[in-house]
Protein backbone atom coordinates (compact mmCIF):
# COMPACT_ATOMS: atom_id res chain seq x y z
CA UNK A 1 0.00 0.00 0.00
CA UNK A 2 2.80 2.45 0.79
CA UNK A 3 4.15 2.08 -2.76
CA UNK A 4 0.84 3.24 -4.25
CA UNK A 5 0.89 6.50 -2.27
CA UNK A 6 4.22 7.51 -3.86
CA UNK A 7 3.02 6.81 -7.42
CA UNK A 8 1.42 9.55 -9.52
CA UNK A 9 -2.29 9.02 -10.18
CA UNK A 10 -3.07 7.16 -13.41
CA UNK A 11 -4.64 9.25 -16.13
CA UNK A 12 -7.63 7.74 -17.86
CA UNK A 13 -7.82 7.89 -21.63
CA UNK A 14 -10.78 8.98 -23.71
CA UNK A 15 -11.41 7.28 -27.03
CA UNK A 16 -12.74 9.93 -29.43
CA UNK A 17 -14.21 8.89 -32.77
CA UNK A 18 -14.43 11.16 -35.82
CA UNK A 19 -16.77 10.03 -38.58
CA UNK A 20 -16.23 11.03 -42.22
CA UNK A 21 -19.03 13.59 -42.42
CA UNK A 22 -17.78 15.49 -39.36
CA UNK A 23 -14.14 15.15 -40.46
CA UNK A 24 -14.94 17.15 -43.62
CA UNK A 25 -15.62 20.18 -41.44
CA UNK A 26 -17.84 23.17 -42.12
CA UNK A 27 -16.44 26.45 -43.42
CA UNK A 28 -17.50 29.50 -41.42
CA UNK A 29 -16.58 33.15 -41.81
CA UNK A 30 -18.91 34.49 -39.12
CA UNK A 31 -19.54 33.43 -35.54
CA UNK A 32 -22.44 34.82 -33.55
CA UNK A 33 -22.06 34.43 -29.79
CA UNK A 34 -24.87 34.73 -27.26
CA UNK A 35 -24.95 33.76 -23.61
CA UNK A 36 -27.24 33.29 -20.66
CA UNK A 37 -26.42 32.64 -17.02
CA UNK A 38 -25.92 28.94 -17.71
CA UNK A 39 -24.51 28.64 -21.24
CA UNK A 40 -22.72 30.17 -24.19
CA UNK A 41 -24.17 29.55 -27.65
CA UNK A 42 -21.89 29.92 -30.67
CA UNK A 43 -23.55 29.86 -34.10
CA UNK A 44 -21.24 29.40 -37.08
CA UNK A 45 -22.44 30.96 -40.34
CA UNK A 46 -21.10 31.14 -43.89
CA UNK A 47 -21.78 34.49 -45.57
CA UNK A 48 -21.15 34.77 -49.29
CA UNK A 49 -20.62 38.09 -51.12
CA UNK A 50 -23.72 39.29 -52.93
CA UNK A 51 -26.04 36.82 -51.22
CA UNK A 52 -28.23 38.59 -48.67
CA UNK A 53 -29.38 35.46 -46.82
CA UNK A 54 -27.37 32.88 -44.89
CA UNK A 55 -28.10 29.98 -42.56
CA UNK A 56 -26.47 28.81 -39.37
CA UNK A 57 -24.27 25.87 -40.39
CA UNK A 58 -23.40 24.66 -36.90
CA UNK A 59 -24.26 25.53 -33.30
CA UNK A 60 -22.07 24.76 -30.29
CA UNK A 61 -23.45 25.13 -26.75
CA UNK A 62 -20.93 25.40 -23.90
CA UNK A 63 -21.10 25.85 -20.16
CA UNK A 64 -19.43 29.07 -18.96
CA UNK A 65 -16.50 27.01 -17.62
CA UNK A 66 -16.00 25.23 -20.95
CA UNK A 67 -16.32 28.54 -22.82
CA UNK A 68 -13.49 29.97 -20.73
CA UNK A 69 -11.33 26.86 -21.32
CA UNK A 70 -12.10 27.08 -25.05
CA UNK A 71 -11.06 30.75 -25.08
CA UNK A 72 -7.76 29.89 -23.38
CA UNK A 73 -7.08 26.95 -25.71
CA UNK A 74 -7.85 29.02 -28.81
CA UNK A 75 -5.66 31.88 -27.57
CA UNK A 76 -2.77 29.46 -26.90
CA UNK A 77 -3.11 27.97 -30.39
CA UNK A 78 -3.21 31.39 -32.09
CA UNK A 79 -0.01 32.36 -30.23
CA UNK A 80 1.71 29.14 -31.35
CA UNK A 81 0.55 29.68 -34.93
CA UNK A 82 1.87 33.26 -34.94
CA UNK A 83 5.19 32.15 -33.45
CA UNK A 84 5.57 29.68 -36.31
CA UNK A 85 4.07 31.69 -39.20
CA UNK A 86 4.03 35.36 -38.24
CA UNK A 87 1.32 37.67 -37.03
CA UNK A 88 -2.21 37.11 -38.27
CA UNK A 89 -3.43 40.38 -39.80
CA UNK A 90 -6.82 41.54 -38.53
CA UNK A 91 -8.36 43.63 -41.29
CA UNK A 92 -11.12 46.05 -40.34
CA UNK A 93 -14.44 45.12 -41.90
CA UNK A 94 -17.62 47.16 -41.95
CA UNK A 95 -20.29 45.88 -39.55
CA UNK A 96 -22.69 43.40 -41.08
CA UNK A 97 -26.34 44.16 -40.37
CA UNK A 98 -27.78 40.92 -39.07
CA UNK A 99 -31.39 39.90 -39.10
CA UNK A 100 -31.08 36.91 -36.81
CA UNK A 101 -34.59 36.48 -35.45
CA UNK A 102 -35.65 37.27 -31.90
CA UNK A 103 -33.10 37.43 -29.12
CA UNK A 104 -33.57 34.42 -26.91
CA UNK A 105 -32.42 33.39 -23.51
CA UNK A 106 -32.14 29.85 -22.22
TrEMBL record:
A Pfam cross-reference name: DUF3467
InterPro entries: DUF3467
Record protein name field: DUF3467 domain-containing protein
Source organism of the structure: Aequorivita sublithincola (strain DSM 14238 / LMG 21431 / ACAM 643 / 9-3)
Source lineage: Bacteria, Pseudomonadati, Bacteroidota, Flavobacteriia, Flavobacteriales
